[in-house]
Design brief:
The chain is an alpha/beta fold. It is built from 13 helices and 12 strands. The protein folds into 3 domains: 53 residues, 434 Repressor (Amino-terminal Domain) (Orthogonal Bundle); 126 residues, Response regulator (Rossmann fold), CATH 3.40.50; 133 residues, Rossmann fold (3-Layer(aba) Sandwich), CATH 3.40.50.2300. The strands form 2 sheets. The protein has a 6-stranded parallel β-sheet, with helices on both faces. Strands 7-6-8-9-10-12 form a 6-stranded mixed β-sheet, with helices on both faces. Helix 9 links the parallel strand 6 and strand 7.
Length: 337
């Protein structure tokens, strides 16, 4: 039979409320009594009931995390940081994998609310009005990762400047002499942050006096398989560019595989670049030139920001921009003049 708080109180010769005060550190207790109660807890191996404790304290010490694809290398690296920092602050994480489906995300938002989590970290491919309405109605602290939010949104975020990052990568390829650059981006609607990446790409083309070609724009939705299909389509239609910019490393690797399977060499025939700088980008061959996001920092900062909001501390801005960096490796080359 498990030890109860009543058993601890009886053995320590104190009231149940005194044991509760010691456990929760809610009200002053003399050092002598506190020491006696803690000794009994150690002797008996008593563990407080987390549900009962959360009802008393009105705090669950839990954070909900919703991700679109737990198999994604990017998501995995972000989660490692979140779990480590949450543990340091004595918070537990409830993880929900939505498979990128809006209805599943809304279901999980309601589920986490019913579980009385104190806040939510939300990683999603698209932020819809339905998502925003839920967050605004429930007044629960929500922090998004890798998502630009508007000043009027009651949502906080930690991200990089996707416009600048995409502009910088496209400009780099143009400086290497590439004039036909395919873009495999994340999606098409305003709800998907790939729109900023497209604008950055277009700005670099404009400055380089290069024509924007819609036949070189594809939607990969973060999936290596979709990127593979996009490159296969380019090959089948004899519309292969000299460079491919995929706005996620997983998609870049999917693109490289399609090229290899059709007898192309990288970067001799086609240069390929990515986005994020996940661990796979330096393990794949040739090593991938990519935009580096501080992935660990994004997860760590998101958790710290959420805990600040949970505690009611003041936060200066609802969007925190972290720096990005162009990492040059082996997957692209300078074209001969």
């Amino acid at each position: 039979m498990s030890v109860t708080i009543k058993d601890v109180a009886k053995k320590a010769n104190v009231s149940i409320s005194t044991v509760s005060r010691v456990i929760n550190d809610s009200k002053p207790v003399s050092d002598e009594i506190k020491k006696r109660v803690l000794e009994v807890i150690r002797e008996t191996g008593y563990t407080p009931n987390p549900v009962a404790r959360s009802l008393v304290m009105k705090k669950s010490r839990t954070i909900g995390v919703i991700v679109p694809d737990i198999a994604s290398s990017y998501v995995g690296e972000v989660l490692n940081a979140m779990e480590e920092i949450a543990k340091a602050y004595a918070y537990e994480i409830i993880l929900c994998n939505s498979y990128g489906e809006k209805e599943q995300e809304l279901k999980y938002l309601n589920l986490l609310n019913s579980k009385q989590v104190e806040g939510i970290i939300f990683i999603t491919y698209q932020l819809t009005e339905e998502h925003k309405n839920f967050i605004n109605m429930n007044k629960m602290p929500v922090v998004m990762v890798n998502r630009k939010t508007q000043e009027d949104d009651n949502i906080y975020s930690v991200t990089v400047d996707h416009f600048d990052a995409s502009y910088e990568m496209t400009k780099y390829l143009i400086e290497l002499g590439h004039k036909r650059i395919a873009l495999i981006r994340n999606g098409t609607t305003k709800e998907i942050f790939g729109i900023d990446q497209l604008k950055g790409y277009q700005k670099a083309l404009d400055e380089g006096s290069l024509k924007y070609d819609e036949t070189l724009i594809f939607d990969g939705y973060f999936q290596a398989e979709k990127a593979y299909e996009a490159v296969q389509h380019m090959i089948d239609t004899k519309n292969v560019p000299t460079a491919i910019f995929a706005t996620a490393d997983d998609m870049a690797i999917g693109a490289m595989n399609a090229l290899y399977d059709n007898g192309y060499s990288i970067p001799e025939d086609v240069s390929v670049v990515g986005f994020y700088d996940t661990k796979m980008s330096s393990l794949f061959r040739p090593k991938l030139t990519t935009i580096k996001q501080p992935i660990y920092d994004m997860g760590a900062v998101a958790i710290r920001l959420l805990i600040k909001l949970i505690k009611g501390e003041e936060v200066a801005d609802n969007m925190m921009l972290l720096p990005h960096e162009l990492i040059v490796r082996d997957s692209c080359r300078k074209l001969d003049d």
